[in-house]
Amino acid sequence: MRHALVFLLLALSPSLFAAAGKPDVLVVIADQWSPRYTGWDNKEVRTPHMDRIAAEGMVFDACYATSPVCMPSRVSLLTGLYPHNGGHGLWGNGARYYPAPEDAPMFLDIQRAGFTTAQIGKTHWSAGPAWQERFKNSGTFFKALGLDHVADISGPPDSVKGRDPYKEHLQQRGLLQAVADDLHGRYISGEFEPRASVVKPEDYHDVFTTGLAVDWIAKQPKDKPLCLVVSLHSPHPPLDAPGDYAAMFDPEKLTLPASVPERYLREGRAMDHAKTKRMLANYLGKLALVDDCVAKLVEALKARGTWDGALVAITSDHGEMMGAHGYLTKGRFYEESARVPLVLRWPGQVKTGRSKAPVQMMDVYPTLVEAIGGEVTPGRFAKSLLPIATGRKDRIRPIAISEIGDKAPLRMMARDERFKYWADEEREFLFDLETDPLEQNDLSELSEHRDTLNRMREKLLTHLRSTQTNLSAGYKSKVQRLREAAAKK
Known about the structure:
The protein has helices spanning 2-12, 16-19, 48-55, 70-79, 106-112, 138-144, 165-172, 176-189, 205-219, 273-304, 335-338, 364-371, 386-389, 450-466, 478-488, and strands spanning 25-31, 58-60, 63-64, 116-121, 149-152, 226-235, 263-266, 269-272, 311-316, 342-345, 353-355, 359-360, 400-404, 411-415, 419-423, 428-432. By secondary structure, it is α/β, with parallel strands linked by helices. The protein folds into two domains: 2-404, Alkaline Phosphatase, subunit A, CATH 3.40.720.10; 413-488, no CATH class. The strands form four sheets. It has an eight-stranded mixed β-sheet with strand order 5-4-6-1-9-10-2-11, with helices on both faces. Strands 13-14-15-16 form a four-stranded antiparallel β-sheet, covered by helices on one side. The protein is globular, with a radius of gyration of 23 Å. The chain starts with a helix and ends with a helix.
């Protein structure tokens, strides 16, 4: 009788999943979100819903993408591997690449723990038709990755060719040609030109993506927990915030960090503070739209009855320079590009507060698996954040790294709790992030910092020696195997 009552309560009250150790899981990935522009650190940013989630959880102030560009960072999350590992190997956005399912087990590990899995929005794990060499269609590819449902929306279309749910939506609304023409023109003339989208917010790609996610949540059975990854395209350029979002911020009232030069040349144009502020205003408008999308996802989980115990991670694949050091876009090791926001919220389990421990964005993968009682596939170098988030440890690794390159020598960065070091094709850099958070004073050539430079080099070398894929792991010689077999008889 008692067992029957417990079963009935679980069936009637999905929120009890959390009490049973099976919370609904929501991961939100924004694209090209600079850590300089989070509502919990910057009062000019308007993200009240994400700010509330951050206040209910832990903010990781030293989280780094394993690579400061889209594809390798996203593949690291899926695989739990660094770009320098076998099974990953992508050091930049690839023209012909896909992750082999046996090397990309995040969703499989979650699925095996009893969860329904889905990713809605931008995947960007593969480029070109490379997966067709092994899989007959994208559906079989996604199924092999452990996904029960996928709506792959690559982003705003600059062509009427191809098919995805968002393009079909625009076509049905008679908007596809106008959107494709507008975006094609932006990419040709400069994607950082701030100008409102040609569609209203209700037809904007991130709002459409969020609507698909809300609908999917509503259709899921309440007797089984879910893990949903919602991957939005904003605030990634083009700077085309729609409707009121495009006019939400007054550029003249915005401030720029001291690391943005008064004048610099980018994308063939002379830039100054006034132009950068206009770009930033549109960028922040797109970020405000992301925040409203998050609010809709929260409401969907509240309607499902699982929000109070839901495990939530909010992050980005990489950042955006937005004029810092005279650069736009990403691909660099400065904080604006390589570091990303990361919030982890799980009421009753994750402590509220902030951590300065060096972590990687890909650490979200084993964190989710550990939280839901699953097992992480062996051979991963991502580490669970729960020891930090629950207060058991101060840190889980000595350094975080980032790496990128399409020719030798490949570029690598290391960040410990205070210093950041990197080497590119020409020279080395060293910054003291404690005293110089805007990275304006390079210490690499100062004699008084030679020991620190050598120490950071050694930390990076040790890290590389400790994170190599080892196909000989677990090997037993023939003699040892024969002896073990004989001992069992």
